[in-house]
Specification:
Chain lengths: ~575, ~100
């Protein structure tokens, strides 16, 4: 049966870029040793030898993979595989498997049976850690069985993949991802995984496009069929027709050309045509991203989201866990500043972490989030502040409190900070005595009293995502009201102007770290409003810089005055679309 | 043969990362080490067995160590259970 054209599957973008290529289907479970064959007494010694040989070979393969990861990505990634070695030679497994072989089972059946039993026992635990270990046990067991039945390892399959392929798999280990880079794989897509899975992180580091979390792509594609992988939009298009392919080819061409152009301005400053300077900084959430930040010549890290530290764990991170993460970042930033935002958990993010075991709130976005949560549970806050302050002795850190809505909250947070500082002094632990403290302006009430708040802090950082949704009382994920979420609503622009002006009156810098700062369309108006710092996702840095380098500051000021007089957002949009850039920008 | 009673103090329990660290530590020694908890008896050098044991924070464990280096193992176990697991994990990451 002929498949329909342009079937579009939506997943999660794990690494950006667009590619068109042929499917390389990496299947998992072609073989299951379910049938029990009786091995007579005389053959059993041979069967034991086969088992031991398979373990030996699996170990050699794993060692090779580990050193490969070590070379390509560094020792921290290799640690991921450490527990596999322990499992491969686990005495419990060895004992049980040998018992089964000695009572007549075939080795592969014994390994499979043992694995199924232990997985069944462990799967009753709901803990994230157990689920990960169950996956490890399955992987190790599969390696042994692969060796026993002489099946080519997936690694071997990947080694012989040929060029210009898009790998499609149920799931991929970080090790397999590394092999792909060496083999010039165009990109990969998987059924499983999320944005913060190890594989996604590795893919990002390698810079190959990837879409994960597609649920069932492995059963929807045939080997060698042509697909389009759009890592920017998180899409996969099956059986594309000529028109769609042509459209994407054009897009790839444009992207390549744009990348080339952007490369040229990488190490230039973010200066307008008439000489006005602003700073572009990077938003990160993972300590491994600093290399990319530096390669993009960012002026620093404008937002380090620390929530990542709280995910994928069953306890509350200790002071040392915080410290380690922050030191890693600041030490690799070569003296450039890092803005560390304290815990911003709650609301949408609460579901991703069950660390705090908080009660479900009816209206989480208006509930116990961020600084409110930290002030209610000071232990969490103190541990993080201690980690941040200790790391401030090792590199330049600015501290940022999220979701402040009134003066009391700021004062209360600063009180905790002062207490932590006093403790550290008593303990003779060094920290930066001049650490700067700023607040996120993302609640309309904070924007409206920004003149008062500006006198009490060292900088502002505007969080547009929340500021817009709280101002408009519209959840942008709710499709019925998403159209109301509009950065160009005159109310939003007035708030931005108020925040920036009040910051400047008090002599402090105003940054923006929301998505609006990273969208090139809004760069001219933000410049015109007087924004000092743009903190954006790493890949957007050169794009924003290019816009800044193509406009005139005086003109943008006039444009913003004009825009602020408009009645509605569609008028404003028209004005922004009419901006003339000094160079051609796609 | 040495018998030793120890309590899991780590908030994460023994099954998580500390379990793997324990196996790595013990595998350097020749002694046979068994853990008894409630009616379970497991080999302490097996990371899979430790997973099955699922010793949460506060669990009472009895260790039975048997072998030529049992004295040393006993001391190391004491040290291991009195140390801060979180710190050990952090140190491990640094190296």
């Amino acid at each position: 049966m002929k498949k329909e054209h342009n079937i579009t599957l939506k997943g999660i973008s794990a690494s950006s870029g667009i590619v068109i290529g042929k499917v390389f289907l990496l299947k998992n479970d072609d073989f299951m040793p379910t049938e029990e064959i009786y091995i007579p007494q005389s053959e059993r010694a041979k069967e034991v030898l086969r088992f031991q040989e398979a373990i030996k070979n699996a170990r050699a393969e794993m060692q090779e993979l580990r050193s490969k990861i070590n070379r390509t990505l560094g020792a921290n990634y290799a640690k991921i595989a450490e527990v596999h070695f322990l499992m491969l030679e686990d005495p419990l497994m060895t004992q049980k498997v040998l018992e089964m072989i000695n009572s007549g089972s075939k080795a592969e059946y014994a390994v499979d049976k043992f694995t199924k039993d232990i997985v069944k026992t462990l799967e009753v635990e709901s803990d994230e850690y157990f689920r990960e270990r169950v996956a490890d046990i399955k992987e190790v067991s599969k390696k042994i069985i692969d060796n026993l039945i002489g099946r080519k390892d997936r690694k071997v399959l990947l080694e012989n993949i040929g060029e210009n392929k898009i790998v499609v798999a149920h799931t991929l280990s970080p090790a397999e991802t590394v092999v792909m880079k060496e083999k010039f794989v165009l990109g990969f897509v998987t059924d499983m995984g999320g944005r913060t899975s190890h594989t996604a992180i590795v893919a990002n580091g390698l810079g190959i496009p990837a879409v994960v979390g597609l649920t069932s792509i492995t059963s929807n594609v045939e080997p060698n069929e042509e697909i389009i992988l759009d890592g920017n939009a998180g899409l996969v298009i099956l059986n594309p027709d000529k028109e769609v392919i042509e459209k994407y080819r054009q897009e790839i061409k444009n992207l390549d050309k744009a990348t080339e152009e952007l490369d040229k301005i990488k190490n230039m400053s973010a200066t307008t045509v008439d000489g006005h300077n602003v700073e572009i900084l990077a938003n990160i959430e993972n300590p491994n991203e600093t290399n990319l930040v530096l390669s993009m010549h960012a002026a620093g890290i404008g937002l380090y989201r620390t929530e990542f530290i709280y995910f994928n764990r069953s306890d509350i991170p200790s002071e040392n866990v915080h410290y380690e993460a922050y030191v890693k970042v600041v030490e690799s930033m070569n003296g450039l500043p890092t803005v560390i935002r304290t815990l911003d958990l709650g609301g949408d993010k609460l579901t991703e972490s069950d660390v705090l075991h908080l009660e479900k709130e009816k209206n989480p976005f208006m509930g116990l989030r961020a600084i409110r949560l930290c002030l209610k549970y000071p232990r969490i806050f103190i541990d993080q502040l201690r980690g941040i302050l200790r790391a401030s002795a090792k590199g330049k850190i600015n501290l940022l409190y999220p979701m402040v809505s009134c003066v009391d909250e700021l004062d209360a947070a600063n009180e905790v900070l002062e207490k932590v500082k006093t403790d550290l002094r008593k303990e003779n632990i060094p920290f930066d005595e001049d650490i700067k403290v700023g607040i996120m302006i993302e609640v309309p009430s904070a924007a409206l009293i920004s003149d008062i708040l500006a006198k009490k802090v060292d900088f502002f950082s505007i969080g547009t995502n929340d500021l817009i949704q709280y101002s408009m009382a519209a959840d942008r994920v709710n499709e019925n009201v998403a159209h109301l979420y509009n950065p160009l609503h005159p109310a939003v622009l007035r708030l931005l102007k108020m925040i920036i002006d009040n910051g400047h009156k008090a002599g402090i810098k105003v940054a923006m770290c929301g998505e609006m700062a990273g969208s090139p369309f809004y760069t001219p108006i933000l410049l015109g409003l007087g924004l000092d710092e743009f903190s954006v996702s790493i890949v957007q840095i050169p794009r924003i810089k290019k816009i800044i380098r193509s406009v005139n500051m005086e003109e943008m000021k006039k444009l913003s005055d004009e825009v602020l007089k408009c009645d509605d957002s569609s008028q404003i949009e028209q004005i922004l679309k009419g901006i003339k850039f000094s160079e051609d920008i796609n | 043969m040495i018998e030793k009673k120890l309590i899991v103090k780590s908030k994460q329990g023994l099954h998580a990362r500390p379990g793997a660290l324990l196996v790595q530590m013990l595998s350097k020694y020749k002694s046979e080490v068994k853990i008894f908890k409630d009616d379970m008896e497991i080999d302490a050098k097996s990371v899979m067995s430790i997973l099955i044991l699922a010793a949460d924070c506060g669990s009472d464990l009895k260790f039975v160590i048997n072998g030529e280096d049992e004295e040393e193992v006993s001391k190391e176990l004491e040290k291991f259970f009195n140390s801060n697991f979180e710190e050990m994990i952090a140190n491990e990451k640094r190296t």
